[in-house]
Amino acid sequence: MRNIPIIATIIALLAIGIMIGLGFWQLDRLDQKQVILEKYGNASSLEEITYPIVLDAEDLPYYRRSSINCSKVISWSSVSGKNARDESGLAHIAQCKTTGIEGSRAEVAVGWSKSPQSPKWNGGRVKGIISQGREQPIKLTVQQPIEGLEILKAPDPANIPNNHFLYAIQWFLFAFSAAIIYIFAARKKIALG
Questions:
Q1: 4-23 pLDDT, tens per residue?
Q2: How would you write 61-81 as a 3-class SS string?
Q3: What's the average model confidence in pLDDT over 141-146?
Q4: Alpha carbon distance 7, 88 (integer Å)
């Protein structure tokens, strides 16, 4: 017993305990994520909401139907995206000044094309589905694209991964591996005396 490395044993036990704790934390996150995914899955069947300008970070209205009046397009960006036929291309996103609260803005994905050239659209009322934004917490993906563009693939909560079970297994395997490595290293230390 005198040859057991005390400091190494304490460090190994702490590390193994932390890894096991992280595994159980991931299992807890699995349940939390499933609740969120069920909420998002039901969101499109709910009534249309007013596009929120002031957001509750704990309860973002992802996958809800909404509409917005883009009174002026401030800027354009293009990012990789898919159309309704699942073809790769570019999603064209307008940063819009909106009516209502002074200085309020909205991110609006107005359509899809193969061309990086910004569309010629000065704004107007559009309807769509709220999803995660790029420059802002949320954006509206329109259901009817503006002239010259094709419809974007609709945001779908089924595309959100829920890998927490695999992460939990990974942490438990790390803990098991650390325990095996410690046992072999401690046995060698004890054998060498």
A1: 778 888 999 999 999 999 99
A2: CCCCEEEEEEEEEEEEEEEEE
A3: 89
A4: 55
For residues 160-165, average pLDDT: 89
First to last CA, the chain: 10
The answer to whether the beta carbons of residues 145 and 152 sit under 8 Å apart is yes
Do 103 and 142 form a contact (C-beta atoms < 8 A)? no
Residues paired with 107 in a beta bridge:
95
The pTM of the full predicted model, rounded to 2 decimals, is 0.71
DSSP states along 91-139: EEEEEEEESSSTT-EEEEEEEEES--SPP----EEEEEEEEE-SSSSEE
Residue type, 65: R
Helices and strands, counts by H and E, the chain: 2, 6
Query: Is the CB of residue 65 less than 8 Å from the CB of residue 128?
Result: yes
Residues with Cβ < 8 Å from 21, sequence gap 6 or more? none
For 87-111, what is each residue's pLDDT tens digit? 999 999 999 998 765 568 899 999 9
